[in-house]
Amino acid sequence: MRLPLLFLLMAAVPQDPKFSGPQKGEKTGAFRVFDVGARKEVDYVAEWKGAPTLLVFIHELSRPAAQLMRALDDTGQIKQVRGLKTLFVSLSEDRDGAERRLPQVIQSIQLKSPVGVSVDGKEGPGAYGLNREVMMTVLVSRGDKVAANFAIVSPNETDAPRIRAAVDEVLKAAAPEPPAGTPEELRAELARLREELLVLKEELAALKMQAARTGPAPRRMDAPPPGPERPKEDERLVNHCRRLIQKQATEEDIAAAVKDIEAYVAASDDLKRQYAGILGRVLDLKYGNETGQAAMRQQLEKYKK
What we know:
Layout: H1 2-12, E1 33-35, E2 40-42, H2 44-48, E3 53-58, H3 63-79, E4 85-90, H4 95-109, E5 115-118, E6 136-142, E7 145-152, H5 160-173, H6 183-214, H7 235-242, H8 251-265, H9 269-284, H10 290-303
Parallel strand pairs: 3-4, 4-5
Antiparallel strand pairs: 1-2, 1-5, 3-6, 6-7
Helix pairs in contact: 8-10, 9-10
């Protein structure tokens, strides 16, 4: 009887917590990934310049881990209006294999945030000290310093609430100061925000009209069943395209948006088709300024089939 009791006592002893990556207060250094959507190497940490960031390092992917990734991606998409940046980083010894597999994973779990393969292999960025014994390391940072660290041995969707809580704390702390500037600068900023709000309202009205026109009509008893719904458009692509329709956009703004969109759709025929469809609808609605409309017409000629 003493042996089972010994086992129970051993099981009751708390296990040492796992540590992975920089801890709270430590710096999140710059590192490069191969973005499998944009098909190029990018240093997002450097690009984001200290913005509130959710970094998710995937040491090993499982179905429960994929569910957590989807939940964190949803958080990233919802909170991006508050300035949150989100990046998923796959750690693999076989970089070429990971680059081939990840697009299927992204499509399967419908990730919208950037997904990259670490160029530093299975260990990840050397300065980060990631632990291969955990399946996922999640860092919430602000000002290039870690605000919260989650080293998760067996990740699943139940881990999402505590990570979201850490994100909310970071965004609360990162709330912008009231705008400063001359009265003319403040009026110009107010005009820009009003224009952006009007564009969003126009998009919402157009979507409502489209839904009203294409809603399900009464079906005759002998009518064939309805066909499949139109696939949902890629949200990251839609966000890119919004840059083309800003009334205040300059020629440089439009050129930068076109460059980013072409890089994003380059490796996917489906994204190219979606892009052409978006361009057609936007041009029909006469969104954007003359420079943007001219660029969109050129892009439509290039991508329509």
